[in-house]
Write a structure and sequence with these properties.
The complex is a heterodimer of chains A (531) and B (207).
Chain A lengths: L9 H5 L4 H29 L10 H37 L7 H24 L12 H5 L4 H28 L12 H33 L12 H35 L6 H14 L15 H29 L8 H24 L1 H7 L3 H31 L5 H27 L14 H31 L50
Chain B lengths: L18 H27 L1 H8 L4 H24 L6 H31 L15 H34 L7 H26 L6
Helix pairs in contact in B: 1-2, 1-5, 1-6, 2-5, 3-4, 3-6, 4-5, 5-6
Chain lengths: 531, 207
Amino acid sequence: MSYLEEGWTLKSWLTSTDHKRIAILYAASITFFFFIGGVAATLIRMELVTPQGDLVSHATYNRLFTAHGIIMVWLFLIPSIPSVMGNFLLPLMIGARDLAYPRLNLLSWYLYVLGGVIILVALALGGVDTGWTFYTPYSTMFSNSWVSVTLLGVFVTGFSSIVTGLNFIVTVHAHRTHGMGWFKLPLFVWAIYATSIILVLATPVLAITTLLVIAERLLHVGIFDPAHGGDPLLFQHLFWFYSHPAVYIMILPAMGVASEIIPCFARQRVFGYRFMAYAILGIASIGFLVWGHHMFVSGQSVAASMTFSLLSFIVAIPSAIKVFNWTATLYKGSIRFDAPMLYALGFVGLFMFGGLSGLVLASLSLDVHLTDTYFVVSHFHYIMVGGSVMAYFGALHFWWPKVTGRMFSDLWGRIAAVMIFLGFNFTFFPQYLLGIEGMPRRYHAYPPEFQVLHMLSSAGAVVLAIGYLLPVIYLAASLKSGARAPANPWDAKGLEWTVPSPPPTHNFDTPPAVPERVYDYDPRKPRESMA
Amino acid sequence: MSAASHASLAPPRGVPPTMGMWVFIGSEVLFFGALLAAYGVARLHWPHGFGAASRHTDVVLGTLNTAVLLTSSAVIAFAAACGEQPQQRHRVARLLWVTAALGCVFMGIKGWEYVKDFREHLWPGPGFAVQEPGAELFFMLYFFMTALHAFHLLCGIVTVAVFARGSARRRPWASPTRIEAVALYWHFVDIVWIFLYPFLYLVERHS
């Protein structure tokens, strides 16, 4: 009996400690928030079609981009691959029955939902206008919006992250099946492990920062207020000390996904497996040392800026190693362009492009010109949307048969992947150009000479939105009318493919045998079972 | 490996059964670490303000509290050590009750200190007593950090009390491994205080 048939009532879902069910709870919740964040983005792009601020007032516009950022970062991206795919796949990939602390896992979902509800309440009450970055002294002393309630929601959601990370770390250390040494682990597990370390170490700093801002707002005493001896810049240091590693929380799991999909559809072992694993650890550790690159124009010393600039260049190296290795994995492979592969390839290309623009921003002199412009907006959307969201969709498609036991329409899968890729580039490439020409971010009115690029971007957003809606339709349709999936429809390697689709509740009937080599693909052998 | 063993299909690895608590403590180190970093920045900026403010803290009560907490750590360490033998469960329960009681003594002294501070106009806000710039910031951090510490201590007291009862009644969930995890948490709360005490009470005390 599969885990899906274990119980049909709502209560069986809401009280389940099965990691697979909790993964689906997370999937449903983050999808819900994704669409709310998407509505905010839609309104933003509609406003920006014309140079005048004519769709919404500036106050509303501030609330829109703030809501978009808060929801997309904390309620969608941070939990997405770790809490959905990580929850579902981690025990399966290492041959375990569940995570180390299943009840803690369920608690993490409830904490996430509670935090999300608090944030939605704050939005319904009127929202926040500080930007998702909550810079002081505006957020502490001058904003008349629902800052404290929103930050309380962020605080609660943060504990969901910490608890999830804790669970994953202990699981990887303690519950690998016999024979599953560290260097036999799938790279997705390495990625989730490194992400979990960041979750556990970085999120507490955000938690304290939110409490300090709330304390200053409510009690009018503060560490960020010069009148009381404080320093507003301290907020930026504390905030970015978390928020830079946070972007690695968002990208490392995506890299793990790419490392699972690409070998399967190129039928080749990952090139440089050990370097890929070390690169993951390198990104996670060096990522803690670069936060000051968000503060180049804040007034910090040139010495500090130069140090952070250098370290930001250094952190790009392991990322580049990974891009090279994915490319090398393709070389002389036997490549098939199924839907998951299209997403994974799109991820590699768009992530690389976004990463290169990151190097531009890491250059001090260029950043002085580009900071707070659309160049930055484009950079992080290339990485987070072109990178993380594409990888999330790739993962969704790759493991959909395993999770649901159904095959989806590969034709529509490919159509959607191409639409998303094209729509994404149409939306965000013009934004690089806008940024170089000086269009500031967070402005809803702009000089008329920027209109053409903004219109292109908004038109692209329409294509992108359709691209995102298509999977909702054909994936949902697959649940009813999709072909029943075999255990291993892609002929992939990895322990999760050795159990039925969908898996039984206890995952493995007997402890699985770990193959001699991980990613034991051979391009000369044809794929065994076809979808 | 009691709580987690059901997830394994293989023999347990060389991982301490209290690993989950260690990871949690790791996150808590960053939690308090962020505040200590903020304190460090502020103190570098206002060395005399911090010194002047620190001299207004009650070093007698602070030292007494330090002794109370260190003793409680010793007591819970004994409890965890005794926890290995099932026939010692009543002794374990008694030791855990003593630990919780000492924690309550700490909270009582801290509460009394807060009242005293209020009477001496040391709570930040209008009417703050110490004129030196940076002194008010010191007390803002003082109250924030000690309140956060007290909250953690309160959670510890409740947990220790629950395990004291569970141990006395021979409950299976009050296992030696879990008592060891609780003891680890208690030691961590103690170590946080060991940092807070000199940073808050002993700044420029010589003058």
